[in-house]
Design goal:
235 residues; alpha/beta; Spore Coat Polysaccharide Biosynthesis Protein SpsA, Chain A; 7-stranded mixed beta sheet; two-stranded antiparallel ribbon; 9 helices; 13 strands
Length: 235
Amino acid sequence: MKAGLIAAGLGGRLSRGGLTMPKPLVPVAGRVLVDYVLGAATAAGVGQIACIVNEQSRGIEEHCRRHWPQIEFEFVRRTTPSSMESLFALRPLLDRERFLLLTVDAVFAPVVLREFLHAAGNYMAADGVLALSAFVDDEKPLRARIAPDGRITALGADAEESTLVTAGFYVFEPVIFSEIPAARLAGFTALRQFLGHLLQEGYRLYGERIAKTVDVDRPQDIAAAEAFVRSGFTS
């Protein structure tokens, strides 16, 4: 399975905390952030990754190619206003078959992604499978409510009672790209809005529970992620 990696964010909250390097290259427990995702992808057998980086960032492509020669990379250099538009920019590289979508700011045990992909393969009729976690340490988590069969029945404000939140990686069928014109016409500015639109339009979205992941968006998240890594991804 081919993967798309969104690494185009400007990391504004991290830079305001004094971290001036591109977000994917922020060090966490002796490794840069992007290496956690790429290590998990490699462990899961993913050998092709289409990655989008912003035009202001430097060194990300060089780092990836130097440290991960076993991965076949395709890079798109474009500054986008949101993760949604970053996904849309990757469409030409991902629109042939079911694909994995990754974000660069999630830290998790490598086995988690492999197990998620195995489970996602059981949802043959799904248009999308979202990784969901019960660990919440985000300023604006996207909550999801699921039915007993795993189908997502509500996202966001309609699922505020749920203990499950999206964890930053997904499996999608290329059919979701047919909703790009509608998303732009509606003025959506975030990936979470696009996901809500897919659900509202009747796309078959499922949720798969995974183990803990830590999002690194703020300077204080780095300490939490480092403690998580040093615990062996257990606490």
